[in-house]
Amino acid sequence: MTKVITYGTYDLLHQGHINLLKRAKALGDYLIVGVTNDNFDRDRGKLNVRNNVLERVEAVKATGLADQIIIEDYVGQKIDDVQKYDVDIFAIGSDWEGKFDYLNEFCQVVYLPRTEGISSTMLRSETQDTVKVGILGCGRVANRFPSEANVVNGVSITAAYDIKPEVSQAYAKSFDGVTAYADLDEFYKNVDAVYVATPHLAHYENIKNSLLAGKHVLCETPMVLKFQEAKELYKLAETQGVILMEANKTAHCPAFNHLMVMIKSGLIGEVVDIEASLSQLLDKSGREFDPAQAGGAMFEQGSHPLLPIMKLMGINYESIELFSRMENGVDVHTKGVIRYPKAVCSFKVGLGVKTEGNLVISGTKGYAYVPAPWWKTDYFELRYEDANNNKKFFYKWDGFGLRYEIQEFISCIYNHRFSTARLRRRESICMAEIMEQFSQRKNFFEI
Fold first, then answer.
1. CB neighbourhood size of 45 (10 A)
2. Which of 26, 181, 207, 227 is the most buried (most CB within 10 A)?
3. Could you tell me which residues come within 8 angstroms of residue 227 by beta carbon, excluding any fewer than 6 positions away?
């Protein structure tokens, strides 16, 4: 039996893909098709993919041409796959001519003619309307957004609004193609989606008004600080037929997502403990230290260490205890202990206290270690009792990291997905619930 293998993204599966698969199939008796993982695409800087990996796998499967479908998720995997599956022929489109000649050492390499006049890139440009995004709140965080959006296909920053008109005017002058609006209704008329980067306590009203105006919303984390507000806003978004997403950049970073998949696959056994830390030493005259603006370590940083806990242990915790050091009405340091039926997790956040800032996930077979700053994950290790089995993983973290959440936001809009697997609505709501417990000083101990 002659085995053939081919690879591709297969985004917006079209006749060109089908023709290529047919040509590959005709070379042998058994066709293996490798479909690129979302994280692998992001790691290679490919941020214009419309369909997620599950949708792309289903599209390939529906052609009936693949005898086996595998996922490609790391550089160098082609050599491993050729040997693992005892492949005779590696087939790829002729636009890659010469690129994969190195595989001739392991099998025959065949470059197949491509169908002229059609490609996923062309289809995206023809069928994809550019999503016009308006910036609501033109402060420090918002200044990072345009440069990150520029590397994502299908998005354009066109408008800015701030309660201080001079701030939005200065913002518009700093970035090409951005118009400052003094009237919020006019702002909404000229955008398809809104990036909310206002202070925490303004998020609820900003999100709600944007949703009622029929706009998709990407809101900085923490989205809101109350359980019922989070539930209400996600329900309203779905009722309005628009996307609401919390902008937690760690949740969308390729390395962090790969780590979560590996842990869930059982590579360190059953998770029994998670420790996550995050701290900054900031100017105490800033908003972060103002109780009237929901300042403090928990509100400013808490959603980040809560993320791996929610992703791996779920939202059904048994109890939570919070311990804080308070100064002038805000917590400069908070430690949380969350109990699950078979695990205990803890996190630390600090604005006036410095800590290591790493992430350790302990399991029954080994543990995962992510060094500081773990929330900008570009490297992690899986460690075992026998150090010979330890593995190190390296990834790219491009720019400020916002491009990954922007790409997912745009993908959700095009594909009408009301929740992203990288930070599900229920997880976002649970984080808001914990924030509310802190604000109401439930299970809270001041030290």
1. 11
2. 207
3. 429, 432, 433, 436
Q: Which pTM was predicted? A: 0.80
- How confident is the model over 19-69, as pLDDT tens digits? 999 999 999 999 999 999 877 766 665 566 777 788 889 999 999 999 999
Q: Closest Cα partner for 203 from 220, 215, 189, 187?
A: 220
Report how far apart, in Å, the C-alpha atoms of 221 and of each of 77, 259, 325, 381 are: 35, 21, 23, 27
Helix axes 425-439, 227-240, angle to 10 degrees: 150
Asked if residues 181 and 203 have their Cβ atoms less than 8 Å apart, the reply is no
CB 43 within 8 A of CB 395: yes
Give backbone dihedrals phi and psi of 102, rounded to 5 degrees, phi first: -60, -20
10-residue averages of pLDDT along the chain (447 residues): 94 89 96 87 65 86 95 87 95 92 95 73 57 95 94 92 96 96 96 97 98 98 97 98 96 90 93 96 87 94 97 96 93 96 97 93 98 93 97 86 92 89 95 95 67
Contact 49, 9 (CB under 8 A): yes
- CA-nearest of 301, 293, 378 to 328 is 293
Cα–Cα separations (whole angstroms), residue 370 to 137, 252, 404? 33, 16, 19
- Residue 121 has a pLDDT of 53
How far apart CA 97 and CA 235 sit, in angstroms, is: 50
Give per-residue pLDDT as tens, 381-419.
Answer: 999 999 999 999 988 788 888 999 998 999 899 888 899
What residues contact 253, with CB distance under 8 A and at least 6 apart? 376, 377, 397, 401, 404
Extract the tokens encoding 292.
Answer: 């009237």
First-last CA distance in the chain: 71
CA distance 442 to 436: 9
